[in-house]
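Question (not urgent): is this output format expected?
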Amino acid sequence: MSTSMLQRVALLTLVVASTATAQSTDVPEQSTSTGAELLRRSSVNVSFMQNRPQGDFSRNVGLGYGADAAYLFRLDDAGFWSLRANVGVVNYGNESHRTPFSETVGGRVTVDVKTGNYIVPMSIGPQVSWPTGPVRPYANAGVGGMAFFTQSSVQGTGDYTPIASTVNHSSIVGSWDLGTGVYMPLSVRTVKVDIDLGVQYYNGGRARYLSKGSIIDLPNAQISVTPLESTAHMTMIRLGARLYR
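Got this back:
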């Protein structure tokens, strides 16, 4: 192979290697930039809630308590508009009774049979907020659904770990919601924290659910389940925190 040919091959190899190196360097930088931008625009809300049923729903169930988590993605640099997605779980009633572990064992070993009634509200929609100042009001709206379920579990009288559990009833209905509240920022160095105080109204469709007394134990290990039915309207009072960078 001639000297000129060797020079051409060496030059071509150098160009290809330089291009590959530049491309391999650009990909991580672009990926890192995208990840940093996503993190900068994201925030997470975690809240404790009190649920207050409204209308016909309030005649069948009482106050409930639970927790809620929301993810917000800021749509503009100033922070006026965000997309909000949230899900929560609320317990609105419990029953418990003690019974022998089995007919064979008899009354020497007893267990607790506990039944809980739950609502899982879910929604997604826009949120608008005032991004500056010591008190920052916001309002949001969303569409989604509510899942209702009742679960019974068995656990030892001195142990809180369930031995076994069964879902006695479940249903889901569509819903829409409206909310408002205020953020109050705290001084934290690494992660910004806002106190979140808000209220959310959920307008759910006609739902079937259980409440205290809806399950009756029958002979021969049988049960009778009688669901209640009404529209699922409720108001949730929320106290929590928003975390962001």
